[in-house]
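Lecture 7 notes: from sequence to structure.
We start with the chain below.
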Amino acid sequence: MADKTYKIAVAGLVHGHIGGLLNNWKKFERAEIVAVAEPDEALARSAQERYGIATHYADWQEMLTNEEFDILQIGADNRAKTDMIVAAAQAGKAVTVEKPLAVNLAAAARVRDAVRAAGTPFLTNWPTAWQRGRRTLMRLAKDGAVGDIWQVKERQGHGGPREIGCGPEFWGWLYDADKNGGGAGADFCGYGAVLSAHLLGRPESVWGTAGNLTKDYEISDDNAVFVARYPKAMAILEGTWSQQGGDGVGYPLVYGTTGTLSQAGQQVRLDRGKGSVEMIDLDPLPEGLTNHAEYFVHCIETGTEPEGILNLETCYIAQEIVEAGYNAARSGEAVRLS
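Predicted C-alpha cells for the same chain:
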C-alpha cells in the first residue's frame, strides 16, 4: 500500500483549524483532496480554489453516497460531526476529526461504539500532538523522569475567538454551547484533560468552576477550571478566552516525586531540586510522521490504533473529564466518575 494515493473528502469548513489540516493533506504527496461538502458556497468556493478541489456538494450525506474516497476529513462544528463520523464509519470509510472527540459524552459514546463496531480507522487530532516541546515533555514524564506523577497542570487560551480574529463561521458556533459543548472550557480544558488522561488515566472524580468573567456579550463561559482527582494525583486544567499576553510559565507542568518538568523555549526543563536543573533538547518529529495526515495514513497502512493523546480511549476519557467538570460547575459539587 506504500504507493497508494488516498482520496480525501472534506465534510464542513467551519472549524478554524480546517485550513491547517487541509494544508497537511495538500502537502502529502500520496493524498488528493477530491471533494468538499459545505452549504456555505463562499467557504466552499474559497477552499476549492485554494486546495484544488474539483467537486462541491452542499450536503455531506450526498457526498458520502455519491463520491468515491478513502478518508473523510471533518471540519464541522462539534455537534454536527457526530452523525458524520457514525455514517462514514458504517460506510467503511476512515475518518479524522479535529479535537475534541465530540460535543458531549453521549455523542462521544456514539462515536466510540460506531468506530469499534465498524473497525474502521479513526483519528481525533489534537494540535499539541505535533508540538515537539509537549511531545518531549510527555515522553519524559511517561519514562519516569520525575518519578511518580502527583500533579499535572495545563493552561490553554487566548483573548477570545472573536477578539483574536477568528472568522464568524468559527466563533459563531464556538459561542453556541449546544454546538461547541460549552465555552472556553470545552475549547481549551480538553487539552489538559487529554494530557492527564494520557499520563494518569481515568480520574476518580472531577471538580469544576466556569463562567463569563470578562465578555460583554452572552456566552456560557469565557473561563473554566476543572480539577481531576486521582487516587494519588490531581490534574488542574485551565481554559480561558480572556488572557492578554503571556504569563511566562512553560505549560504544561508535571510534578513528580523526584522532580518537575516544564517547557522552556526550545528545551524542556527538568528540575530535580537542590540545584539540579537539566535542560533537555527537544525530540525531533519522527521522519514521515510529522503531522496528522502522515500519521493517519501510517495507522491505516500498519493496522495500528493511534497512540498517546490521539488514542480513542484516551480522547473518550478526556470527554468524560470535561463533561464532569461542567456538571460540577453547575452543581457546586465534585462529580464522581462511575
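Points to note: The chain has eleven helices and 15 strands. The two ends are 43 Å apart (CA to CA).
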